[in-house]
Amino acid sequence: MEEAMTRRRARGGGGAARRAERSAVVIETAKYIERNIPNFEVLNEEALEIIEANAETVLAEIGVNFVNNPAALERWRAAGAEVEDERVRIPRGLARKLCSTAPSQFTQHARNPEKSVVIGGRNLVLAPVYGPPFVRDAQGGRRYATMADFEKFVKLAYMSKWLHHSGGTVCEPTDIPVNKRHLDMLMAHMTLSDKPFMGSVTAPERAQDSVEMCEILFGKEFVRDNTVMTSLVNINSPMTFDDIMMGALEVYAASNQACIISPFIVGGAMAPVSVAGTLTQVLAEVLAGVAYSQLIRPGAPVIFGAFVSSIDMNSGAPTFGTPEASLVTYGAGQLARRLGLPFRSAGSFCGSKLPDAQAAYETANSLNMGLLSGVNFMLHACGWLEGGLVADFEKFVMDADQLGALHGLAKGVPVDAEHQAMGAIREVGPGGHYLGCAHTQANFKSAFWKSELLDYKPFETWEEEGARDTYALASGRVEKLLGAYQQPALDPEIAGALAAYVAEKKASMPDAFM
Predict the structure, then answer these.
(1) Alpha carbon distance 324, 385 (integer Å)
(2) Is 125 strand, coil or helix?
(3) Mean pLDDT of 209-226
(4) According to the 3-state scheme, what is the secondary structure of 381-434?
(5) What is the side-by-side strand order in the sheet with 384-385?
(6) Which of 131, 234, 395, 429 is deepest in the core (most CB within 10 A)?
(7) Nearest-angstrom CA–CA distance, 158 and 189
(8) Count of other CB atoms within 10 angstroms of residue 61
(9) Radius of gyration of the chain (CA)
């Protein structure tokens, strides 16, 4: 019944909407990953208990800061915490008790119900890069991002089979005033794609705008009763919760919308250089943040986040794809599961300036780490370059293509009669080949994951076709995908109401670029 109601909500609006839907190109989107492989665990029971005990010590004896937020301090005081100035010391066990009301998994609904995602459990949802102020492509090089760039990324995410989510700030459109750009970004996600998306967190009032725009898109009652947004709430590590991020968290938690509570860790700068020390701080920060969300609204959906990189001690630059970052991520996954919370981490992380061999190595390390560590929501799954400063169009499609390999690996090893292939082994026997046997003929189309980007042709064919490297192939794929893009159908009345809301909001305030 709920799905039928949701379909009516998404598809309503009379004949124009139905005609548009019938004429639209069908874009295939793979279902979110359901892992059939084990999580890779690096911490034994003793190590987990030590880290958990140390995190409780951090909260009880050192404490965390909630800055410029008197209401938060009052909430903590009423809950039984010790508050001194802006420092909150949380008695042992209190944060964990508060966290117990957060759901272990939840559904984020998309306006196309077939693209809704379940975040938590054995699932992995893939979302694109988030936050870069710069973009790069083969034609224009490195430059400040614009709204036109943003819209192209939303279209590419919509067209990408292996991406389950449209993301949030896939790049920061610097040609739109700071106080208004969130409206344009949300409008793009809502109208240019039908996948799930993220809300704005740059000010509490912008979070409220996000909720109100969702009420137009989905209906007020649907938003009241369901989660339709996931948003990124970063902690200012070490152990500081600012009023901007907490203000956005307060809006979303009160509205039953999901937040990723995510420490921002650069090991050696924002956390200790040791893996165990970093995990202690990550757990303490997440416990405090998730607990606070439950003070706002018990049962509000949240995700245990861990953005982790190491640091180059010569330059101070963050480094990615390193063993230490992997160990922290694997350990954080274990801690998240013990808390019973969905886990966010990993992505297409790299420090390279170009989509080159360095980018490929670091990205492959980071993506595989995410799959094996039990991540449930992977932000930055494609397009990340230059330590997150750049969203790169060519790397976006390179990474998005490789996400298909994660889907394939996550399937695990079926051992039913068909996959045992004993009939094929008997049919071929010693000295034969399997190309023509019945089992191969029945399964060859789906037996192996196949890249839609990489070149497997013989040298002579490759040379005749221009000897294109991966970057050139990716550039062509960007052009092909954008050329084939067709906007998904949306009720014209809803589209008009969204446009009117955005126009009214923009007219109500002067432009601000700070």
Answers:
(1) 20
(2) strand
(3) 98
(4) CCCEEHHHCEEEHHHHHHHHHHHHHHHHHHCCCCCCHHHHCHHHHHHHCCCCCC
(5) 141-144, 134-137, 390-392, 384-385
(6) 395
(7) 9
(8) 9
(9) 24
- Token look-up 């694997």 returns 330
In contact, 58 and 280? CB cutoff 8 Å: yes
Q: How far is the C-alpha of 415 from the C-alpha of 316, rounded, in Å?
A: 49
For residue 313 the two structure tokens come to 């001690």
Q: Which two tokens stand for residue 342?
A: 């969905």
Q: How far is the C-alpha of 109 from the C-alpha of 97, rounded, in Å?
A: 28
Element (H, E) at 305: strand 302-305
Q: At what angle do helices 15-23 and 2-11 cross, to 10 degrees?
A: 90
pTM surpassing 0.85? yes
Look up residue 292 and give its two tokens: 């606070």
How confident is the model over 93-101, as a mean pLDDT? 98
Q: How far apart (Å, rounded) are the C-alpha atoms in residues 379 and 124? A: 11
Q: How confident is the model at residue 319 (pLDDT cuts 50, 70, 90)?
A: confident
Length of the chain equals: 514
DSSP summary character for residue 329: H
DSSP 128-140: -----SEEEETTT
Residue 77 φ/ψ, nearest 5 degrees: -60, -45
Tokens 């060519």 — which residue?
Answer: 394
Distance CA 153, CA 392 (A): 9
- pLDDT at res. 314: 82
Rounded Cα–Cα distance for residues 26 and 485 (Å): 10
Name the strand (E) or helix (H) holding 69. Answer: none
Give the pairing type, strands 307-311 and 302-305. unpaired
Dist. CA 187–CA 414, nearest whole Å: 43
Report the DSSP beta bridge partners of residue 198. Answer: 230
Question: What is the residue whose two structure tokens read 């794929």?
Answer: 477
* Contact (Cβ atoms closer than 8 angstroms) between residue 238 and residue 281: yes
Chain centroid to CA 90: how far? 30
Instruction: Quote the mean pLDDT of the chain.
Output: 94
Q: What is the Cα 350 distance to its own chain's centre?
A: 16
Q: Check: CB of residue 129 under 8 Å from CB of residue 112.
A: no
Assess contact for 141 and 466: CB atoms under 8 A.
Answer: no
